[in-house]
Specification:
heterodimer; A: 406 residues; alpha/beta; ten-stranded mixed β-sheet; 7 helices; globular; B: 257 residues; Rossmann fold; six-stranded mixed β-sheet; four-stranded antiparallel β-sheet; 9 helices; 12 strands; 27% strand
Amino acid sequence: MSWVADLAQGTSGVRHAKGLAAFERVGFPGPRLEGWKYTSTRSVAKVDWVRADVVAAAAIDGLRLPHAAVELVFVDGVYQADLSRGLDGAPVSLEPVAQAELQPQHVGSEDGFVAINDALATEGFVLTLGRDQVMTAPVHLLFLQQGGEQPVTGQVRLVVKAERHSRMQLIETHHGGEGQTFVNELITVQVADGAKVQHSVMGRLGSGQLVHTVRAEVGRDATYHSHMAWLSGSLVRSDILARLVGQGGHVELDGLYVLADTDHVDNHTVIRHEVPNCTSVETYKGVVGGKARGVFDGMVYIAKGADGTDSQQNNRNILLGDHADVKTKPTLEIYADDVKAAHGATVGQLDQNQLWYLRARGIPKAKAEKILTHAFVADRVLAHPDEAWREVLAEAVEARLAVLEG
Amino acid sequence: MLEIKNLHASVNGSPILRGIDLTVNKGEVHAIMGPNGAGKSTLSKVLAGSPEYEVTEGSVKLDGEDLLEMEAEERAAAGVFMGFQYPIEVPGVANSYFLRKAVNAQRKTRGEPEASSVEILRAMKKAMAFLEMDAGFRNRPVNVGFSGGEKKRNEILQLLMLNPKLALLDETDSGLDIDALRVVAKGVNSLRDPEHAFVVVTHYQRLLDYIVPDVVHVLVDGRIVHSGPRELALWLEEHGYGAIKAGDAGDAPRLEA
């Protein structure tokens, strides 16, 4: 019996039961699935995980975001009420998921990790921002994987509802350390007509493991902007499915990954244009060194009838050293007419002409390489509209690049 | 200052320079002219240390130091500057950041104290005003989206900021309209004094109306086949390279021995 069934004992309710049944049918995703070709789930499947508990204290002071309006803290996937702040009078209403009658939003009932989340998740919230409400400061979801004597796992479930013409900014930070930990988060985001959600995620997971699944639904004239920054992690699977279901909708997926040591980050994204006249832009950039592996598997699907779609997708990578590895697979499926769609991917070294130009001006080779590597990812940091967050991110990116450069 | 002897260089095994001899003294401006494919651009790139070329024979000395032994960045710090014919775009690196790094990297290599950001910014503002460049170029990524003329002005901005002993200008006039040409020449001429030397590579004599050379050399098939005073450039414009190429310089002005 797998740990999933073990941990499911003691849960009750329809969702849990259905989830467990689904998991027993599909199991852990394996290399036989096209979408899991480059990522092994053994380090998650073959461990006797136990549930984490509420902790007395956690070292999170340096991890807080001072400019956040609301800060929800999770340690090893367990919500920590005493460490959280800003809940009183928050413009966004919060309701624990355990009490909410959840309609499973996911499309992928065949997804093993969604099934596990269905079966086990008791932690998390439904966050609702009312009609016409504009939040100027972000909601910060602070996740710390600190581990303990035994391998601990947490299943987190979040539902974000941005009602009509509202604006919300959500920032998730995932921090890890040296413990054996695994968090499986499912977040569904509903962006109602005319609303705008800015969803940012930064992961510095160390030896921590994270499966992060986003299911977004974007309404008429609505915008969903996802901004992912993966800066370390022994196993990170970032899965995004963004569906454009109202005309005039816009999806923007920005991503950057800076990987060193034995990091493994697998970005798996699907943008589905289901109605006419929507736009999407996806730009992922990676710098991969050490013995790390970075994966980009991005699909843009333009359904029959989604005429007037405009979509751009791009993934660029720089490989440092001989042992790093990048797999990139941008795909485009078009069943509509009158569509503008472009996609591309590159994997390479630093531009030799640029390097020569910097050296010709007196900048030593090693320094020039550093400047160019920073410049390569800097534009993804600059793609974020929140200045305070950009500063945090820039510092974290800088620190990771320093590790990469030795 | 610069002493080139019997310089041979090749790219991917095919020889381009086949024995260049050239001496440039402090305070002099030398023009290198010649037909397409003669090796004019190669000469300046080889001197600046481009990794594209392999030097197979000969020697180059800058103030007695062996230039060929130095990395490109060391040559820059030693006072060699090449103005690129096609300046490279560097996305994500602001012009001002680039200049600050270059100025201080050179100072560091030379063992001089680094300049403060304020000092560098002040110098940059002054040089940009002199070159009639909009202040907005400070924060734009290096050469990205610049027009041909803007790129060349940016090269001259770097020239003024780095203040090299020896400036190699590789086809600086290509693709310039008359206004840009005037500004570029103004920048170069502002550095002319008994301490600076220039090697100006050009296909057309037009540039030399603005940057008046002391000596004009004709480069054909990787060798300097003829050298003359400033008037040689005008002669070449009238007669073309044909006769000199065929080994018959005729009445072309030549340097007095």
